[in-house]
């Protein structure tokens, strides 16, 4: 049944008036829309709303167009054509076009077609909205770890595409929304909507917009189609996060949980995208409460200047090698070694302590997530 009708098949008056306003803009005649009892529920002539139209009542009852010729017109019923609006076998109402039937017969037929197309589009939009809501709930359920294989298959089928192992989840986001997240992602929804159209054009898996990103969840052997979507997403200059193949629903849940965490800490998402396996540390930090991140920053980096933190990033990237860090910074090794000594003195720890490099790496990521320094 169309979105414009209720459980009893009645046409919604508010929608009816909107439909009349839409279609009547293109015709030079008065247009009425009556319910299945012949009561006018929408009209360009608002004074007629609420009155009963005997010709419309007859058209609805007999399911045929009823023409009122000029010599048959009365005060309450004007000359015109009244044609039943039939959708899915049910009479939703009657379309009336005022005028000599010889002149408006074809207009009434065209308006009927236009109204059916509008109602079909609204019905499809309602169905898609419902499927999208199920898909978003499915993603939330996966992130919560509450879906087993059977429920995943059932809920994904309800969302429009049943999933089966092996799974894969791809998230595409506009890198501008990652940069602008602190001040509010003004461009993300529009970009995600464009990516959604691209995903549906490729026709693979479940595609839905969530957290201002386009989520594509795939089951089975769909590598070729996923690659086709990745090409389209790159053409749209999107950043792509890809889980790779996942053997079980539990692995899919873990991947979705980490991806959702990353999208809540956009400073940790590389502008060019990445495989999820490359972002293990970033996902750990993104999953931490903000208060825990700030405590880690204060304990590890709190007394350090931005330049000293930059030096530590180079040392971490070089796996603790002072020589490689110096080369990355374009400095002499001795200069970097001297900086490190000053850093250790100010911070109260040694870079050679057991576990120091991983702890510093996490603190630097937390620093990025909290936007305390530039990455």
TrEMBL record:
Q: What is this protein called?
A: Carbohydrate diacid regulator
The record's section on InterPro entries has: CdaR-like_regulators, Diacid_rec, PduO/GlcC-like_sf, PucR_C-HTH_dom, PucR_C-HTH_sf
- Note the superkingdom of the native organism: Bacteria
The PucR C-terminal helix-turn-helix domain, residue ranges = 310-366
The Putative sugar diacid recognition domain, residue ranges: 11-138
Q: Name one Pfam family in it.
A: Diacid_rec
Recorded hits in Gene3D superfamilies, A to Z, give: PucR C-terminal helix-turn-helix domain
Source organism (scientific name): Microcella putealis
Bilayer-crossing regions: none
């Amino acid at each position: 049944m169309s979105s414009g009708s209720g459980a009893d098949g009645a046409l919604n008056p508010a929608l009816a008036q909107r439909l009349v306003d839409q279609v009547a803009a293109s015709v030079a005649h008065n247009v009425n829309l009556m319910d299945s009892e012949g009561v006018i529920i929408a009209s360009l002539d608002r004074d007629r709303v609420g009155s009963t139209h005997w010709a419309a009542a007859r058209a609805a009852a007999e399911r045929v167009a009823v023409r009122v010729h000029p010599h048959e017109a009365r005060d309450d019923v004007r000359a015109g054509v009244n044609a039943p609006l039939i959708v899915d076998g049910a009479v939703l109402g009657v379309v009336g076009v005022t005028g000599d039937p010889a002149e408006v017969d074809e207009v009434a037929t065209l308006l009927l077609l236009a109204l059916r197309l509008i109602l079909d589009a609204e019905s499809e939009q309602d169905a898609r909205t419902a499927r999208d809501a199920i898909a978003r709930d499915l993603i939330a359920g996966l992130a919560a770890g509450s879906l087993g294989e059977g429920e995943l298959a059932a809920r994904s089928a309800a969302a429009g595409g049943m999933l089966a192992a092996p799974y894969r989840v791809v998230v595409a986001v506009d890198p501008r929304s990652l940069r602008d997240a602190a001040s509010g992602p003004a461009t993300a929804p529009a970009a995600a909507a464009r990516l959604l159209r691209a995903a549906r054009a490729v026709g693979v898996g479940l595609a839905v917009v969530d957290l201002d990103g386009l989520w594509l969840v795939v089951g089975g052997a769909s590598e070729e189609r996923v690659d086709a979507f990745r090409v389209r997403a790159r053409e749209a200059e999107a950043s792509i996060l890809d889980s790779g193949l996942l053997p079980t629903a539990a692995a899919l849940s873990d991947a979705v949980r980490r991806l959702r965490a990353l999208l809540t800490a956009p400073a940790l998402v590389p502008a060019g995208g990445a495989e999820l396996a490359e972002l293990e540390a970033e996902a750990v930090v993104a999953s931490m409460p903000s208060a825990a991140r700030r405590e880690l920053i204060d304990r590890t980096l709190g007394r350090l200047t931005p330049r000293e933190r930059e030096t530590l990033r180079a040392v971490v990237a070089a796996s603790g090698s002072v020589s490689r860090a110096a080369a990355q910074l374009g400095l002499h090794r001795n200069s970097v070694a001297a900086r490190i000594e000053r850093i250790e003195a100010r911070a109260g720890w040694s870079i050679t302590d057991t576990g120091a490099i991983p702890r510093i790496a996490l603190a630097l990521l937390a620093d990025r997530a909290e936007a305390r320094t530039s990455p």
